[in-house]
Amino acid sequence: MWEYSKKVMDHFLHPRNVGEIENADAIGEIGNIACGDALRLYLKLKDGRIVDAKFKTFGCGSAIAAASALTEMVIGKTIEDASRITNQDIANYLDGLPEAKMHCSVMGMEALEAAIANYRGVKIKPTEEGTIICKCFGVTDNIIKRVILSNHLTTIEQVTHYTKAGGGCKSCHPEIQKILDEVWAKGELVTPKVKPPKKMTNIRKIQLIQETIDREIRPVLMLDGGDVELVDIEDNTVYVSFRGSCTECPSSKVTLKSTVESKLKEFVSEDLVVEEAGL
Ligand code: FES
Predict the structure, then answer these.
(1) Closest CA to 191 of 163, 242, 241, 149
(2) Over the chain, what is the mean pLDDT?
(3) Which ligand 1 atom is at minimum distance from the Cα of 170?
(4) Which residues line ligand 1 (CB under 6 A)?
């Protein structure tokens, strides 16, 4: 069961601007009825400004909500301003969409682009041409690359959520992975939307260290009659004390120390070093 925002539900249950515009100045059509989602967008313009927009769609509730939102977003805008609307803008307008439904926002953006191209008398945006990568859903390499870039996607699953590519027989997964690898390798995603991690407070750091020792380290040591105890923390140095069988062999203590350190680096912070207390 997807979690939908109130705005998505409102636009789904009471869609705005449903229908056709007679003598529309632009029509954009995207999708394929056979694949389950299709959208036709009609625009009426006056002096380069969109004065009316209507849509017809064959799709799920999110597709209806995204198309309805799109029509509200474009009415009153110039063609230039409308051309800057992204799928993320549509999702934001709806207070978000479940990731598995983001392809509905992409469909809205593509229908708008197709309508604008139609208005300008060009057949289709060059970025939408390209080689079909996913035969099940007719998705090209260019649209996959573009959606990866504009939404900072990193996995095949995300690409499927945003474009449907890869959601059928899966035979295109190696090709999708190749595109992901190429985009990331080229450093095109230089400004990921991921927020930098907040600086960890000391209390939180102590909690995480203790939790990691209790969860990841002590149960393993206790199997052989050993144990470890957190003694103190000074900045990034963690002082521990080994107990039981862990104290019997000096060389195994060196290994234990590096094992504890690597676990703390993995689960708490790369900056941590471990020392044995009292040495
Ligand atoms: S070719 Fe992409 S899912 Fe089948």
Answers:
(1) 149
(2) 85
(3) 3
(4) 134-136, 165-172
